[in-house]
Each structure stands twice: as C-alpha cells, then as structure tokens.
Write a structure and sequence with these properties.
binds S-adenosylmethionine; single chain; 12 strands; alpha/beta; Rossmann fold
Length: about 325
C-alpha cells in the first residue's frame, strides 16, 4: 500500500482572522489587539486526511476516559491546590508575573473554525486568548467604572485590564482563597489595588454588592458550574451590572450534526461544563428583562473543546442604581 502524505495548509491567526472570529469588521479591532497578534506570529498547519482522523479518534477516546474529572462543588479543593502552586512560584519568580499563567492551556493541536491546527509554540493558545481579551475589554469596558471578574483565578485578566484601562476599579472574586493571596501579591508588586474577595458562584453572597456602573467578567469560570448557574444569574440580575461579558464554552453553539463538533460536545458534557446558560439568557431577553448584545462562537479552542465563545448582555434598565 502506498503511503499518502497530505500536506496541511498553513493558517495564520492575524487581525483579519480574529475579526471574523469575533464577528466585527477589521477596522473595529483595537490597536493593542493587533500588536499581540503580530508579536506572536501565530501560524500553524491544518490537519487533513489521516492526521485529522487520528485527532478525532483521540478526542473521542479522551471524552470516554473514566479518569476524566467532572466540575462541581467537590472541585473547590483542587482549584485551591492548583492556585497555591502558582502562588508558591510567584513568591520565587523574578517579578515578571509569568507564573500567573495557568498551566492548562498549552495544547499543541487546537480547534480553529472547523479545523484542527498543529502549532509548534505551546504559548499559541494563550496568545490568541490574550488578543481576544484585548478586543473584548476595549470594546465593552471602555465606558464603565469598574470590572468584577468572577472565578478570576490567578488574575491574568485583571492585570491586563489594569494595564489597558487604568481608570477602572477592579475586583477579583474566586472561591479559592489562594486566588486572593495572589491578587495581594500582584498589588504589592505593581502598586495597583485589585480588591480580592472569596465568592462561591454556586452559593452567591447577596451581601457582596456591585458598585453602580460596574461590569461583570467571567472567563472559563462559569464553565465550571455545569447546569447549576441559576443562583449566580439571579445574583447578577439583582445587582444590575453595567454589562456582563462571558468568555466561556457554550455547548448550545456547537452543531450536533458535525463529527468535529460532536467530539467537543461529548467532552463538554462528560466534564459537566456549563449548560443551559445561553437558553436562560435567551428566555430573559424574550421576556424583556435583559438585552442580549452578542452571542458569538469564535470557533477557537484547546484540543478538546471551544472555551472562547462570547456572550455579552446587560439587564434592561442597567445603570438605574447609579
Ligand atoms: C479555568 S479557571 C479560569 C481562571 C481565570 N478566569 C482565567 O481566565 O485564567 C476557573 C476558575 O473558576 C474558579 N471557580 C470554579 N468554580 C467556582 C465557583 N463555584 N465560585 C467561584 N469560583 C469558581 C476556579 O477556582 C478557577 O479560578
């Protein structure tokens, strides 16, 4: 049998591609977002033929792995331990804050708009995520007074926000207390206060009041709630934030009739990731309680699923507590 070698096309995540991923015209991309993309030289090769099949099979098998952990209230200790490790490394680093970077998004085969992309740089995914955040933050947080990030982890988005929009008041909320210790360290090093507070999205503390004019951010955090997002959404509705921006895996945006999407759906469900959140927002919008501003599948993800879909909404009458 003759071995067939199928050369994969090279694909670049440049400003034009990012614009299509986030659903805007090219000239709507912020300058700093373009700079991140240009600095990264973000290119990879598209897998086709047997190589693509191999990855589909790998993804399918991974979703059936009995050792796969499920999200839920029982995972609190795991996050505490994970971020404690980052905190220890932060104490010993050179002050560059690179140790804040989570260790999980370093896959070398990634999902991009219907294709698997092989990349040689393990920082590729994080660089695209950073470019995406530059775009989102400048598009939606320019006019607000502050941002509260729920499930902020090591605070990389808050550090980015502090650089991009220095006038903002910033809050980092997380159920892991090591997250709050990390935010203290960031404050000590940068001189920039980020208010840290323990907060459990499964059991929201109604006494934590968002100051009027504050926006909400979640990024790969509501992901961890599975179908149990009701109390947190109720909390947000009661708080009347200026705007809510979510960078999360949204299972309802996959196409169940596609094999490429089906493997991601299986993985998402096995890990008990976020489900029913978008339908709840759509019902709230239909009832006139919120405005749904953006629902966008960027088509970008790690190997197993697409964690970077965008959902942006605001309560009707937001700002009335101002
Ligand atoms: C995948 S990490 C993402 C961290 C950060 N948003 C980022 O983009 O790097 C998920 C974060 O959500 C937090 N988390 C998970 N469930 C939570 C809950 N019920 N309440 C508050 N935080 C939670 C975890 O502790 C962790 O910091």
């Amino acid at each position: 049998m003759r071995a067939e070698v199928i050369e994969g096309a090279t694909l670049v995540v440049d400003a034009a591609r990012l614009a299509t991923m986030v659903g805007v015209e090219l000239d709507a991309l912020a300058e700093s977002c373009r700079r991140v993309l240009a600095a990264g030289e973000l290119r990879g090769s598209v897998l086709s033929g047997a190589e693509r099949e191999t990855q589909l099979l790998r993804a399918l098998r991974a979703s059936e792995d009995p050792a796969l952990s499920c999200s839920g209230p029982h995972r609190a200790g795991d996050w505490e331990r994970g971020w404690s490790e980052n905190l220890r490394e932060l104490h010993g680093d050179d002050g560059s804050l690179v140790t804040l970077m989570p260790k999980y998004n370093r896959h070398q085969v990634l999902r991009l708009q219907g294709d698997y992309l092989r990349v040689s740089d393990p920082a590729f995914e994080y660089a695209v995520y950073t470019a995406l955040r530059h775009h989102c933050f400048q598009r939606w947080f320019r006019g607000v007074d502050g941002v509260a990030e729920f499930g902020c982890g090591t605070g990389t988005s808050l550090v980015l926000l502090a650089e991009l929009l220095p006038q903002l008041e910033l809050w980092g909320l997380d159920w892991a207390e090591s997250s709050q210790r990390i935010l203290e360290q960031i404050g000590a090093r940068t001189g920039r206060t980020i208010h840290g507070r323990r907060f459990d999205m499964f059991a929201p503390d109604a006494d934590f009041l968002l100051p009027p004019g504050t926006a909400v951010l979640t990024s790969a955090a509501m992901e961890q709630l599975g179908a149990a997002h009701g109390p947190f959404v109720d909390y947000l509705l009661a708080q009347q934030p200026a705007i809510c921006v979510h960078i999360e895996p949204i299972v309802e945006l996959y196409r169940p009739d596609s094999l490429f999407d089906d493997v991601a759906i299986r993985y998402h469900r096995r890990r008990n990731y976020l489900s029913g959140f978008l339908p709840r927002l759509q019902r709230l919008a239909a009832a006139g309680r919120i405005e749904l501003l953006t629902v966008q599948r960027t088509g970008f993800g790690s190997f197993h699923h697409e964690g970077y879909s965008l959902v942006v909404w605001r309560p009707r009458g937001a700002g009335s507590r101002r």
